[in-house]
Every structure is written in C-alpha cells, then in structure tokens.
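Task card 7
Instruction: Convert sequence to structure tokens.
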Amino acid sequence: MAAEVSPGEYKDVLLFLATAGIVVPLFRRWNVSPILGFLGAGVVLGPFGLGALSDQFPWLAVVTVDNPRDIAQLAEFGVVFLLFMIGLELSWERLRLMRRLVFGMGALQVAASGGAIAAAAMLLGQSAPSAAAIGAALALSSTAVVMPLLAERNRQHSQSGRAIFSVLLFQDLAVAPILITLAVLGSRQEGAFSARDLLAFAPAVLGLMALVVIGRLVLRPMLKSVARAKSEEMFMAASLLVVIGAGLLAALSGLSMALGAFVAGLLLAETEYRHEVERTIEPFKGLLLGLFFVSIGINLDLTRLFAHPGPIIGMALGLMALTGGVVLALGLAFGLKRRAALESALLLAAGGEFAFVILDSAMKAGVVEPEIGATLLVASTLSMFAIPFLAALGARIGGRSAAPVTGLAEGAPPAAQPTSAPEPGAAAAPAEVLVVGFGRVGRLVGDMLGRHDLPWTAVEWDTRLVEKGRKSGAKIVFGDAARPEFLRRCGLETARALVVTMDDPEGAEAVVATAREINPALTIVARARDARHAKRLYELGASDAVPETIEASLQLSEAVLVDIGIPMGLVIASIHERRDEFRKELNNPGALGGRRRSLRKPSAPGVSPPSDASARAVNHEPEEN
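Output:
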C-alpha cells in the first residue's frame, strides 16, 4: 500500500516552481532581470511578507514559505553550481595569467574594504574582534548575483568583467581563512595569540591538496568510463557527483563547498568532457540559483527594516559608497580605463551572500552580538537588491561595443564572445573551424586545416576516437553535436566554418539543421552518402554537400582519362565542370524527384535530436570510414 502523501510537505517546493514558471517568462518579456523577480518573490512569500499576515488571514499560509531554513540549505547549492561553472570556464593556465588581478587587485580590495569597514565599526563602539568580523563579512560582494547579471548583458569578457570576476574569485578564496580565523577567535581564551592556533588552518590546506590530487587522478578516468556507456542519464549522474562530491569534500576540510566545486571545475576545464558537463549542469545551476535568490528575499527582515529604516538604509548606502570607492581607486591603479573601473565599482559595491555565512559564524562564536549581526544582515540584503540596477547603470557606462576584448594588462586569455572593445594593441583571436566527427575522414580534414594554419576543434561522441585524437595532439572534445547548447559552448556562433564528416545520414542532417538555426551566416560543409542525401543537406542549410558516390565516380573518371593519355589540364577542367553541374542539379528544387525524407528541425535550444539514432550516434564514425 502506498504511503500517505501530505501536500504540506511539498508546499514550499511547489511555491518555488510556480514562482520560477511565472517570474522568468514575465520578467524576460519586460526586459527586466529575473533576479529581481526572484528576490521580490522571496520577500512576498517569506515570513516577513505575507507570512506576517497569516495570523489575521489564515488562508495566506497556503502561499507562504513555512521552512525558510530548509530552503536556505538547498539554495546554497546554487552558489556551489555557479562556482563550478566558473571553474569550467577557466583553467589553471588562465588563472595563472589572471594572477595580477586575482591576487593583486582582489587581495587589496578585501584588505582595504574590510579595514575601512572595521575602522568605522570601531568608531561606532565595536570591539576589535567584532569590528574585524564585520569588516570581513561586508567586504565581500555577491558572486551569485553579479556573475549572472554580467552574463545576461554579455559583459563577462569585457575589461571590467574580467576585473570583477578576478576580485570575486579572490573573495571566494578568502572565505575559508576568514571562517577559520573566526573559529579561532571564538574558541581561544583571553591571552596572547599562540602559534598552535595556526594549526587550525592545516585541515583546510590538506583538504585542498587532497581535492586537487584526487581530482587529477580520478575525474577524467571516471567520466571516460561513464561516457563509454553512452547513457545521458549516467553522464548526468556522474556530473552531479563531481560537483556535490567536491563540495562536500571541501566542507569536511573546513573550506566552503563553493570553493571545492570551483577547484573541481578547474580540473575539468582542460579535459575533453568540459562542454558536455557544462551542458548537463546548466539547468541545475539555473534552477538552484533562482532558489538562492528567493532565499535571499526571504531573509529580508521587513519588521527590523520598518522599525529602524534610517540607520539600516544609511548602513546599506554607506557600505556601497565605501566599497565602491575602494574598487574604483584600485581599478584605476591597476590600469583599468575610467569607464571600466566605474562599472566594476558599481557591481562590486553591494554586500554578498557570504555575509550571511560569516556573520552567522561570528554570532555563534560570540564575536559579534546577535542584535548587531541581525541588523547588518538586513542592511547587506538591502544592498543586494540594488545590484541589478547598479549593473544596468554600469552597462550603460561601460558601453556595448561588439568587438571582443582579448585580455587585460596581465595577458588574460581571449574572449569567447563579442562583448566589448578590444584593448589597445591586442589582436583578435582567429575564429576556429569545427569538425564534427573524427574518424578517418575527420582526421584528414583536420590535417588539411592544420597545413593551412587554420585553428580547428573536433567534436566526437565515440570515446575511443576522442582518446585516440587527444593522444595524437588534436584539439578534440567529447559531446553530442546535435544539441544546440553544446554547439554554442563549442563556439559555433563565432566559428569560421563547420565541417560535418559523420557517415550517419540522420545524425549529419540533425547537426546541419541545428547549426544553421544557431548561425545563419555560417559556412557548413557536410559529407553526404549519395546525391539524394546531399540534396537533403542542402535543403537543411548546408553551404556545400559532398556526396561520396559522385566524388568516387569523378575520381575514377579522372584517373582513367589521365591514364589513357588525355592531357591533365583538360581532364581537371572537365572534372570541375561536371562537379559544378552536379551542384546545380542538387540545389535545384525539382531535381532527383521522389519523396523527401522528413526531419524535424530543432526549434529552440535544448530540443532533443529527432531520433535515438542521431542522439546516441550523432558523432559516431566507424574507424574504417
């Protein structure tokens, strides 16, 4: 007999899903960031919104959140998944290139902002440990709010976007030492600081080292084994295991879960599974981030705000002015243009999600008084509500030029999307050619592209061919090229051309149709089985289709004509003329006759391929072809 279901146990989940289903489409239609909608929904649905009126109007309890703490615990995974995706966008090499901004500007921002806020707290009567904890908590900005806003406006690869990311990255790295220091301050007795207190940092250091070592030894073999099964469900399970497992391992070591997920992303960034993992994780990240924003809104204590509106609003404004001023000064000092420095200051001015973690730990450790901590949390939350408006103002100030930025003064890597004006003296990165399928035909195409110094990336679904390609030095990634989001992550929107070499007709048709929808101006050259298949590929948007049967007959004709003594020049001219005639015939709508095979073109990102054959074997090309 089935267990009895209590609808109340699922009410909070249903409320969030309903919010996501209503808020995102509505706010996108209004050209407003959905983040504002999630934040506002959290305020309305929380215990300080409609929940405060449920005693007078009991029916309101149906549309209010009962367990904010449970939602907050689940919402933390939104930040974890966000940091994992950020790690996938980077690599150890890119992080090394960005070290000047990360460990220079980022470190100085945390130190300067934290010191200034701590000094202000001491002037207002706080003790030195309490002021230090307050300064550390309020000096950190919101990665979870700022980075999605940058991505929405295509600003993440601009000069200001790279500076903002660098500062946010150092802030995330600083959370663990701050929490450990607070634990030491709260546990030690009155007296001088002991060298033994430094041992509190040992588990975090060892945990980080273990995470890197285990990741390097385990991640790629595990994903390779799962990919061989060609099961999307198993690959999704393995991807979630990587994110959550790395986060929990970091948490057990005293680090933040977000930092552990970030390290796991870095370790996967240079593997062949990077883009497929990104595509798999993206929906979870979006949903959990929405839940995170709802939890932020729920935590806005309106009763405290209404009781002390002047001091709390003054704290929020003072925090934004102080932190924004520090970032502006540092940005100019580190060579950012004035507009980029101002845009960075606006987006980093507000408080962040880690203020909740740090102030909560400080209050539990007895370092910060609960009344003071609760008031500061309301002020920090209020400042976070201003971030979307500050981001819109920053985008106006920063400009929206279409040329990609190629790096900052310290030599940051080229941008993947057109977002901002290039730096003076920087050269634009050459567009790549994507080769889908890496059997014998795909390898020959890659070899010819390399001989002409054209950068290219191969996409393959067969793990054997992926492994063989990587051993030969080819730039190759694992994934399903019939999926729009995967092709976008491979750079199709900025690619120079797409070459489809697969011998699976339906798979080739799915890739051509998807690629043409994503990039109408793209040059697409596809391998066709015969004349009828080539005609179908032309109908789906291929720029050129190469039928195997026709090309074989032309090559045979050329060989026999030359061998029997016909001059080479005449033979080559006649072969080219006949090939052009075939192209005209295949592009003629009335040619070849017969009933067309139907293929549903993907109509939107995320639509599955038209058949299981093209979904599972879309990039598979037997070794003998």
